[in-house]
Design a protein that fits this description.
The chain contains 14 helices and no strands. With 317 residues, the protein is an all-alpha fold. The chain has one domain. The longest helix has 31 residues.
Amino acid sequence: MNIIAIISPLVLIAALGFICTKTAFLTKNQLEALSKFTFQLSIPAFLFYQMANAKFADNLEPQFFAAFYLPVLSCYLLAWLANYYFHCDKKRNSTASAVFALGSSYSNTVIVGLPVLLMTLGEQVIAIIFLIITFHSAMLFTLTSAIAIKSNKLQVNSKIKGRFHWLNSLKQTFNNPLILSILIGLLVNVLGITIPEILSNSLLLLGKPAITLALFSLGASLAFYQVRSEINFILFASMLKLVILPIFVYVAAQHIFGLSILTVQVLVVLSACPIGVNAYLIAKQQGEHQETVAGSVVMSTMLSIVTIPAWLYFLGL
């Protein structure tokens, strides 16, 4: 399979954004406006549409979710600990640690994982893929947001010491357009609400350029960041995402939970995908680790040209 044909457009779009900013074709203010449209409208429309129309597989056991999400949460924890205890500038910063953890465990399942699996295993795996995609963003975005909210609350008032105001947490969570769009889309799906055709078509058009705009904005933002100073953590995040996480998922799915060969193949490939660009949007929103997450998305995407074929070979695909 030609992985380069899937990966290279992602790198080229990010490179175009970098060139446009570096050559002053786009000013910083113009980039901010583009990012605001992407984050506030296009990406939420994309996530809501995908969530509302996701097809859930029937009769899937808890082991299926555990085999994927326990390793994901384990890598999330490893990355959080690495940043919290070892980062020179952001040590003891829970929000920055959560953002870095998200950028080390969040997979590009839609742009990379879906086409790779369709090309190798066919449409028989669509239900499994969408079940993972459905809860993937919801879980990691909400977890990162909750940690950031708790951390910020404790920083504002040190007297609260360990107290967590869930009402304020919920308010801030629902102010996040990414999480809000996912939750509403899931609710629409579960309740079986039919979206009017005119609204559905509008959401589809609005969400179509979402990933392209996000990649472009990410590449453009690299012109303003000192990525070189974060190279060690960028490499750590990339290796954790592309190598360690798939190993954890393979061991869990194959040897601990004993899932079918097809399910093991799907879960490992999804976990072996590069870091998803939406992680950068969360980093930008939280104002932490933008340069690290942006660099990690680009680095892991380029490295996945080698690592994904290696995993496919290992899985016998």
